[in-house]
């Protein structure tokens, strides 16, 4: 159980670092498998609908290289450099 908690924390810290980098650099998150869809009955409601490319393509081809790296122990170099610079400021 302890190992699961450690891994959960590691993944969350990695996600926070990526989100912080993206926010600071004006990079907007776009879901890979879903697209925004406006409710035709109510313009104030935005939904997300499945684009049809996970099971139909990625799962079938077992090709995941276009997805964010969630599980490696390291951050991408540019994000790691950003986090290191942020930590030096504090």
Record the SSE blueprint:
Elements: H1 2-24, E1 34-39, E2 42-50, H2 54-61, H3 77-89
Could you describe the 3D structure shown?
- The protein is α+β, with helices and mostly antiparallel strands.
- The protein has one domain (2-89).
- Helix content is 49%, strand content 17%.
- It is built from three helices and two strands.
- It has helices at residues 2-24, 54-61, 77-89, and strands at 34-39, 42-50.
- The chain has a two-stranded antiparallel ribbon with strand order 1-2.
- Strand 1 (34-39) and strand 2 (42-50) form a beta hairpin.
- It is extended.
Entry summary:
The chain has helices at residues 2-24, 54-61, 77-89; strands at 34-39, 42-50. By secondary structure, the chain is α+β, with helices and mostly antiparallel strands.
């Amino acid at each position: 159980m302890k190992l699961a908690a450690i891994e959960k924390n590691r993944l969350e810290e990695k996600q926070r670092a990526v989100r912080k980098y993206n926010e600071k650099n004006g990079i907007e998150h776009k879901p890979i498998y879903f697209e925004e869809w406006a409710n035709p009955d109510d313009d104030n409601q935005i939904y997300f609908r499945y684009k049809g490319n996970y099971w139909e393509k990625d799962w079938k081809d077992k090709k995941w290289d276009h997805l964010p790296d969630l599980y490696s122990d390291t951050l991408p170099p540019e994000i790691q450099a950003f986090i290191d610079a942020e930590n030096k400021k504090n």
